[in-house]
Write a structure and sequence with these properties.
Elements lengths: L1 H7 L1 H9 L5 E3 L5 E3 L7 H19 L3 H7 L5 H13 L2 H14 L1
Antiparallel strand pairs: 1-2
Organism: Cephalotus follicularis (Albany pitcher plant)
Protein name: UBN2 domain-containing protein
Length: 105
């Protein structure tokens, strides 16, 4: 999947790995909140469009069970991270698998 995404557009892969940094603004309480779409400038639209494209590529590559896992994610990075944990496990799971295989060997 990595190679497929990189072959489409390497910027998509960068966005998935690093995160999209979606447009935000500071509200009157000093908190960062999502920027309203009607206040997007051209750069904001490019970022949001690239995130949507990356999400589309991921969704097209997964089945309906996996879609249910990631459908609530806002960014492509969030989707990728959730799929990665599901299929590769956390670092603790990886270490446990390695220890089990070493013990069996």
């Amino acid at each position: 999947m990595t190679i497929f995404i990189q072959s489409l557009d390497y910027n998509l892969w960068d966005l998935i790995v690093d995160g999209p940094n979606l447009p935000t603004i500071t509200n009157e309480n000093g908190e960062l909140v999502s920027k309203p779409r009607n206040k997007y400038n051209d750069d904001d639209r490019k970022i949001v469009q690239l995130n949507a494209k990356a999400k589309h590529v991921i969704i097209c590559a997964i089945n309906s069970n996996e879609f249910n896992r990631v459908s609530s994610c806002v960014s492509a990075k969030e989707m990728w991270d959730r799929l990665e944990v599901t299929y590769e496990g956390t670092n603790q799971v990886k270490e446990a698998k390695i220890n089990m295989l070493v013990h069996e060997y």
